[in-house]
Design brief:
With about 350 residues, this protein is α/β, with parallel strands linked by helices. About 35% of the residues lie in helices and about 15% in strands. It has one domain: Alpha-Beta Barrel (TIM Barrel), CATH 3.20.20.100. It contains eleven helices and 14 strands. Strand 11, helix 7 and strand 12 form a beta-alpha-beta unit.
Length: about 350
């Protein structure tokens, strides 16, 4: 059985020059993509996260077309100075969408980066973003120009540290040569291990934190997600290849095996999946999403789980790289993504 301790005793991990609790909170679902949301419940969930020790909060300007940043800004405004200073808030630019549409275009121009940053600062109610990501990559704009525009925001005190999401190894190396990159954010979990071949080793070599989004496979690795047909209207997983047809059936068989292993070891599948992610290195920081307080404590509790080498290997064998059936995104979702999967 895996060893467990008090989650609050888990060693902090470095992110953007600050130590943070190992597990953060992805806020996207509080505004969009997973069905109807409730601002009052979301605000209560944000407070519960802080109470549980969470220090890393992740949002983006495209989530709910600014709503997610505004929601987080409302929450931050109600915190005392000491509590706010303990938090690292990350947001992103680059995805431009129309309300009601999943399709997007990518804008990495210097003028857009500056305008997007100013708008995010207003919505968040702050004068400096702790960690600012290029959310998606426009290959028509040299990565050196993108990093240079972001570096200028750092020089002006509008941004404390920069990051990139879903870029490839060559782009990451070139960006880091222009200005130190604090974080690489990409999908990473038992379900999606494509980063392990090149990107994770490069990030570790360069001293760049890996912020793992969807560390629970968009809910599939919890072992309690209903069939896609039972998901509410507006839940974008209805359109994801991994949740449909034969791919979904194959993936659910894998998850059933995960649940059996978790039961054998006396853990919820959720905690086992998150603990595996944390064991990939001291610079890996998962940001599972949670729209309700009920899910938070279990997620945070994964920081207290210590897996043996044999247990990690058993999980590696159960979910080898490339074993998950289906693509991560439908065609429209691949805009600006350089990483495979």
């Amino acid at each position: 059985m895996p060893a467990t301790t008090n989650p609050l005793c888990a060693p902090a991990r470095p992110l953007a020059g600050r130590p943070v609790f190992p597990i953060g909170l992805g806020c996207m679902g509080m505004s969009e993509f997973y069905g109807a949301s409730d601002d009052a419940e979301s605000l209560a969930t944000l407070q519960a996260a802080v109470d549980l020790g969470v220090q890393h909060f992740d949002t983006a300007d495209t989530y709910g077309f600014g709503h997610n940043e505004q929601l987080l800004g409302r929450f931050l405004a109600g915190l005392g100075t000491a509590d706010r200073q303990r938090l690292t808030v990350a947001t992103k630019f680059g995805i431009v969408r129309e309300p009601g549409r999943y399709e997007r275009r990518i804008d990495n121009s210097a003028a857009y980066i500056r305008a997007a940053c100013e708008a995010s600062l207003r919505r968040l109610g702050t004068d400096c973003v702790d960690l600012y990501y290029c959310h998606r990559r426009d290959p028509a704009v040299p990565i050196e120009e993108v990093a240079g525009a972001m570096a200028q925001l750092v020089a002006e005190g509008k941004v404390r540290a920069i990051g990139f999401s879903e870029i490839g190894a060559d782009s990451l190396r070139r960006a880091h040569a222009v200005h130190p990159v604090a974080a690489l954010q990409s999908e990473f979990s038992l379900w999606e291990r494509g980063l392990e071949a090149a990107l994770l080793p490069l990030a570790q070599q360069l001293g760049i934190a890996l912020v793992a989004y969807s560390p629970l496979g968009r809910g599939m690795l919890t072992g309690v997600l209903p069939a896609v047909s039972a998901l509410p209207e507006g839940d974008f997983r209805r359109a994801l290849p991994r949740f449909n047809g034969e791919a979904a059936e194959a993936n659910r068989r894998q998850v059933e095996a995960l649940k059996a292993l978790a039961a054998q070891w006396g853990l919820p599948a959720t905690q086992l999946a998150l603990a595996w992610t944390l064991h990939r290195g001291p610079d890996v920081l998962p940001i599972p999403g949670a729209r309700r307080q009920a899910h938070l404590a279990q997620n945070v509790g994964a920081a207290a789980v210590t897996l043996s080498a044999a247990q990690v290997e058993a999980l590696n064998a159960l979910f080898p790289p490339g074993a998950t059936a289906g693509a991560r995104y439908p065609d429209a979702g691949w805009a600006g993504i350089e990483t495979a999967g």
